[in-house]
Here is the input.
Amino acid sequence: MSPLARQPFKARTTEELIALLSAASAAILAVIIISTLYFGRDIFVPVALAVLLSFVLAPVVGLLQRIRVPRGLAVVGVVILAFILIFALGSLLATQLTQLAGDLPRYQSTISDKIQSFRNTKAGTGTLERASDMLKDLGKELDKPKDTALVHAPGPASGSTTSAPPVPVEVRQPDPGALESLRALISPLIHPLATTGIIIIFVVFILIQREDLRNRLIRLAGSSDLQRTTAALDDAASRLSKLFLTQLILNGAFGVVIGTGLWFIGIPSAILWGILAATLRFVPYIGAVIAAAFPLALAVAIDPGWSMLLWTLALFLVVEPIVGHVIEPMVYGHSTGLSPVAVLASATFWTALWGPIGLVLATPLTVCLVVLGRHVERLEFLDIMFGDRPALAPPEIFYQRMLAGDPTEAAEKAEEFLKERSLASYYDEVALRGLQLAQADAQRNALDQERLTKIRDAVSELVSDLADQAERPPAKGEPTMDVEASSAVESVAENAANEEMPFVRKEDLPPEWQGEHPVLCVAGRSLVDEAAAIMLGQLSTEHGLAARVEGASSLTSSNVFRLDTTGVMIVCVVYLDISSQAHMRYSVRRLRRKLPKATIILSCLVKDIDVTALEAMREGAKADLAAASIGDTVRLSIDAGGRSSQTVMKQATGIAAA
Here is the structure.
């Protein structure tokens, strides 16, 4: 083999090696980042909390600045007030937890009685018996003294004949010194105080240096288009601040309602469960469920009956749907912008990295990443991976399913589209755009004949599936296009603007138009053109003009004269590739010789073609009419049928008058 013959193979191998190295470097970088987040969680958790808290406090600081409060004073005042509220809630939580821990032994007998009643009704339930034994053991452990132990004195010597009673011995630890007591008091507080101090410092720094941090992020993201990047980041910061502040208020209100409801029901530590419900509701889908589990378990433990459990369950089942499905969509929309899979994946990821605090921070952190991904080009992959917007546009999904030879999913998407829009709109806005992608791949030789055939066959199956979903012509007597009235034929532009497609009835058409297939749809050059012609034929048939579809081979010189043209009054020649105007001209010329009285419509289904270029193609091909979409082609066909009917009616009226 010559060196020239081996060169493409070397080039391809080099490209594959570069791609492999790039993927490996990306994987190594991801491992380094994840390891850094895990081992540096003592630093990154406070920083993440500070960033999110700064988003919440930024609107309040901005409000104070607008009323002429100095920025430094506004930042310090807002931060101090926020942390006073946080410490107050923390103290309240600690008090509630202490009270709940002290009351737990009292609930043992209630749970034991309920388990015993279940055991009596369902004999042989080993699980319930084990649960009852476990509760008894737990009660014994809770009843043990904490600081004393009874140590039995040794018995008498082996030779003694009398036995003395055991002497209880109380073991006491020596009193710790002042320094030891101080160390024992301060030790548990060092880590929380250090974390709180880091959060306060970062919040103040972020709020004061907000513009400088924004500029550095712009430089990091790319300063080639400062105007667009600045506007994007300002918009992202504003949206995130409003989102998190609104979520905080809404979830806080949710916690207040839950806590108040639990207090009325009689659940102990209702304030604790209200705060827990407000906190866990930051976790979508599962947060409210987790928050409800604890009060429900407590209701079972303290109530000898079941009414408290049912009331607690009803409270969560009523309040959560109202907040999630009524209030949230009214306030800031139903979705946070994340896909459900992304929410679960992010919750799992951040919980594994940072523990329970990661579960609460998972959604806000991921929302931040997605918003940045939507505005910063280099971070676009974050929006693609975690955002709720479809990864592929509807035309791309259509094309991908046609490539796979699986029109079922495309039919499901089409049915969703047809609930709000017309079939003509679906064909023009989704299916035709997908075929244009196929045509672009075909022009660069990326599709072989087998794949093109698969696309054509899949489109044919899809069209057949959509036949039941298509709009039907109105029954006789219902409003329709009145071809007998001169003012009834609406213009194509007006119909297109209103997204209306007129219907015609066969009995209203002239006699020569009442054949089996008055419309003939012919593919121009390729199998992609034939797929578009199939959609055009089905839409025309659904609107009253029955159509037949022929492949591109029927336009050859040897085949065009063998073409069955019985009853054909309109010929629609479909092209998605308009690069060869000579091919269009010869095709129209051959069809004109075969059908001299038929109306020939040139359907140039090319994206964003203007009216001037379309008219130039019509004149060059010597066609009667030209259209740039499937819907417009059908409208022109119906319009031509209406004009023919009016001509017949005028002639009949003139003969009758004579």
About this structure: Residues 226-265 form the longest helix (40 residues). The beta strands are 150-151, 169-170, 519-523, 547-550, 570-575, 599-604, 625-627.
